[in-house]
Amino acid sequence: MVMLTLSYSATPYSTNESHHRRFGFRCINSNCSKRLTTRTIRAGSFFEKSRVPLTKWLYFLYLWCQDTMVKKAAETTGISERITLQVYQYIRDICTTKLLHTPPRLGGPGVIAQIDESLFCQKAKYNRGRRASKEQWVFGLADTSAKPAITYMQTVDKRDADTLLPIIQSVVQPGTIIHSDQWRAYYRIQEKLHLEHATVNHSVNFVGPETGVHTQTIESCWARTKLTTYVPT
Description:
single chain, alpha/beta, elongated, 32% helix, five-stranded mixed sheet, 3 domains, Nucleotidyltransferase, domain 5, 8 strands, disordered N terminus, three-stranded antiparallel sheet
């Protein structure tokens, strides 16, 4: 068994990074070959090799979650725009890796998840980067049990059943009720995925007059996403 204790200097609290480097974990197991050696509190995290102070990292995480522009974040933290841009990119990379390896599980017994596809081709966020060289289809799912809805979106090359049904199966939980339009790729959801499936005919109504089925939640997500997101091709 590894026994660790947090060791630190008894000096008063300070936001100075040199003070934070005094904090670390020290093994107190008398049978351990590394007894009394210490490890910084950054060890084993994505902060480990960064020279950016931890207090600044926490501030960056907050600003990034608030969708604060790079220039404003740099001014707020006192860190150069070049470093701020690198930090923002690093945060995005970490989130992307996490989502790719452990996609969210939406829905659940009796929960409605709306599905839809949308075509993206717009300018880059904040007018940075190149414009998409071709149109890109994106498939999305929205868990309507939460307010606002929890969404999952994935770029796709095709909109056929062989492409979309495996995505639905990997993302939604058993017992979820799927609401969609009448796109032909969805016809075999109930048969193949064993999920309850209801549709709305968008050529006639936006909301099913008798069933109340609609896809307005995921469609509103498309509108918001297209205002702020650049989809690479």
